[in-house]
Write a structure and sequence with these properties.
The radius of gyration is 15 Å and the shape is elongated. The longest helix is centred in the last third of the chain and has 20 residues, at 44-63. The protein is built from two helices and two strands, in the order αββα. Strands 1-2 form a two-stranded antiparallel sheet. It is mainly alpha-helical.
Length: 71
């Protein structure tokens, strides 16, 4: 059975959701910064962890044939 490839929207959505869940579950503090305009983003260490989780999830999706990096 051939796997259906995820489109970019679904790929990014899945990676974001799972990476965020992993970040919340890793027992480290999730540090956020709010700028003077009220925009909130992760502090550098938290962003680095999130990026690592995102890449890990994306790699797993690729390994299972659900995304194609060459497309």
């Amino acid at each position: 059975m051939e796997n259906k490839l995820l489109d970019d929207h679904d790929r990014i959505s899945i990676c974001l959701d799972i990476a965020e869940a992993m970040l919340e579950a890793d027992y480290y503090e999730v540090e956020t910064i709010t700028d003077k305009h009220g925009n909130q983003h992760y502090a550098e260490d938290t962003q680095d962890r999130f990026n690592g989780y995102f890449d890990m999830v994306e790699g797993i999706l690729h390994d299972h044939g659900l995304i194609d990096w060459e497309a």
